[in-house]
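Priority: medium. Attachment 1 of 2:
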């Protein structure tokens, strides 16, 4: 029942506590793009879902930090600097799916999907979120 997997996410995120409240409240990222600026195939709903996944079951935040701001383990995804691609939406989808077997600056590699149990639909949403925080 992969199709239903998305419906279980809000519960998981609610159990996680603050991130969801932060996303909905005044602390929400103020660089959310308007619908017109989103790449083809990307919706605002994907960006919202992607943030929840990034900070939740996607575990991206553990290395890239909350809001993708970067940590000592992995680089910021919230700026225009890309080590492995042109940072386009399509490239991000591919990058997240494949991971980074050979990091350029970090001490550790990134596993495919960051090692998280996420499906293609979830990868697309996370890529939409990463695109949104890195493109004004
Ligand atoms: C175990 C730590 C870890 C996790 C978890 C992780 N990453 Fe990474 N990520 C890295 C490292 C390390 C790199 C490569 C940095 C380098 O080349 O020096 C990287 C690179 C990337 C890049 C390419 C950045 C660039 O500059 O081109 C993207 C995009 C990315 N990660 C997204 C994600 C997303 C989305 C998730 C969650 C699904 C995720 N990562 C989970 C460690 C991680």
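Attachment 2 of 2:
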């Amino acid at each position: 029942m992969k199709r239903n997997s998305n419906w279980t996410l809000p519960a998981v995120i609610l159990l996680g506590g603050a991130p969801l409240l932060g996303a909905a409240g005044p602390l929400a990222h103020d660089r959310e793009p308007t619908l017109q600026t989103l790449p083809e195939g990307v919706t605002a709903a994907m960006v919202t879902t992607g943030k929840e996944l990034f900070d939740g079951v996607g575990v991206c935040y553990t290395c890239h930090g909350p809001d993708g701001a970067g940590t000592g383990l992995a680089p910021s995804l919230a700026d225009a600097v890309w080590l492995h691609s042109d940072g386009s939406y399509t490239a991000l989808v591919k990058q997240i799916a494949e991971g980074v077997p050979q990091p350029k600056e970090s001490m550790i590699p990134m596993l495919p999907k960051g090692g998280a149990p996420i499906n293609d639909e979830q990868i697309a949403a996370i890529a939409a979120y990463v695109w949104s925080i890195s493109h004004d």
